[in-house]
Amino acid sequence: MNPYLNSHNQDLMDYARKHKAKYKNANPFPSISLENFFNPEFLTEVLEEFPDLSKGNNIVYNDPLQKKLAGNGEELFGPRTKQLMHFLNSEPFLNFVNEITGIEETLFGDPYFSGAGLHETKRGGLLKVHADFNKHPINGLDRRVNLIVYLNKDWKDEYGGHFELWDEEMNGCVDKFAPNFNSIAMFSTTSVSYHGLPNPLTCPEHMSRKSLALYFYSNGRPETEAVAFKDGHNSIFVKRKNSSEDSVAWDRYDESRRKKPILRRIYNKIVARLL
């Protein structure tokens, strides 16, 4: 028995074959949400050791387009979290991801957890709709699949925080997944697989949206996916059509970017005088 998995998916390859058609045919791009994926007792132990990412040596995203927290690699993984994350980067699980996604190229995990690992969003946090960076920052491999493990017990729909999938024209949200405990979201990452949680969380102050993120890579990708963006790019944020909230956010973001060069010049002048 695999101690990490729930009883219904102990045979991962059989489980993948049962769900691969749903993944392939999903709109607006290949994706799936699966409930009760892990052994709930084990995942509860993972949740219990989840740190407060607002403290310590963590990554803080705080601008009009994204307000969230992320861990720095394995640094804050507890024992159970480390066991689970290493399993999700292992050969058996990578074979499962290859099978359910139908990706022909061999997939690789990321032992560095670049941009992945521990994620947390607190009340008021958000992540505007975007497409992800497409190349691994260290080895240059092509990013192909995202896997998100949700750790949120007693999460209510009115708190928000749903994982939204948007069509390429940004006309609307086509599908969304609630970030409930012991559910996973998996999707194929391309330069037009637009997704996010674009509205501020309204959960109580004592709660936060917690998740584990893993990204899977291949050496090369189909030409149909590579034509538009052959070179590497960072996250590509896009506006929701007819969204006054997004228009305000972009205006604030553009204003902050315009101010940064001015502040840098002032800083350089002060440093030059001191020297």
Description:
28% of the residues lie in helices and 24% in strands. Strands 1, 2, 3, 4, 5, 6, 7, 8, 9, 10, 11 and 12 form a 12-stranded antiparallel sheet that branches. Strand 2 and strand 3 form a beta hairpin. Helix 1 packs parallel to helix 4 and helix 2 packs across helix 3. It starts with 11 loop residues before the first helix and ends with a helix.
Gist of the model:
With 275 residues, this protein is an alpha+beta fold. Helices cover 28% and strands 24% of the residues.
Structural topology:
Elements: H1 12-24, E1 31-34, H2 40-48, E2 59-63, E3 66-70, H3 79-88, H4 91-101, E4 117-122, E5 126-131, E6 142-150, E7 163-166, E8 173-177, E9 184-188, E10 195-197, E11 208-218, H5 223-226, E12 236-237, H6 244-274
Helix pairs in contact: 1-4, 2-3
Instruction: Estimate percent helicity.
Output: 25-40%
- The overall pLDDT, averaged over residues, is 90
Rg, alpha carbons: 19 Å
The number of helical elements comes to 6
Largest sheet: 12 strands, antiparallel
SSE class: alpha+beta
Number of strands: 12
Rough shape? globular
What's the order of the H and E elements? HEHEEHHEEEEEEEEHEH
